[in-house]
Amino acid sequence: MSLKPGDKAPQFSGPDQNGNTVALSDFAGKKLILYFYPKDMTPGCTMESCNLRDNYDQLKKEGFEILGVSADDEKKHQKFIEKYDLPFSLLADTDKTTCEAYGVWGMKKFMGREFMGINRVTFIIDEQGTIMHRIDKVKTKDHSAQILEELASLTN
Predict the structure, then answer these.
(1) Which of 32, 45, 124, 135 is catalytic?
(2) Which domains does the chain carry?
(3) Catalytic annotation on 99?
(4) Can you give the pTM of this predicted structure?
(5) What digits encode the pLDDT tens for the residues 122-135?
(6) How far apart are CA 104 and CA 127, in angstroms?
(7) Among positive and negative, which fits the CA dihedral 81, 84, 86, 90?
């Protein structure tokens, strides 16, 4: 089953880069950009995270919180945040519970090889915990503009 706009966002809970528990309920009453990415310190994931960092103030002005999710552990997330000065938290989903709940853990293909991994997907969740939009074809270099365009199309 694939989550789509109008669906309730699945509850999640797990440690962030500092070992603090982060849950969907922490964002009640706020809009959330929940982005799933394959791996810290890789070119595409770094581009995507840095693009969100560079446009963080604008996204905050639009009323959004941001939370990144990958299967990397807390220590790796901490290094990623420090190296690239990321102003938002990253969820360490080492057991892939959140990835599976959101349907982003699955078969991938890279250079002719098939393997299980995290598919790059972003969910935009409203203040009531409902999925407003889902982005499957993430533009890593320009993800913030892509998010803002999607939001503009929802309000028109």
Answers:
(1) 45
(2) 13-155 (3.40.30.10)
(3) no
(4) 0.94
(5) 999 999 999 999 99
(6) 22
(7) negative
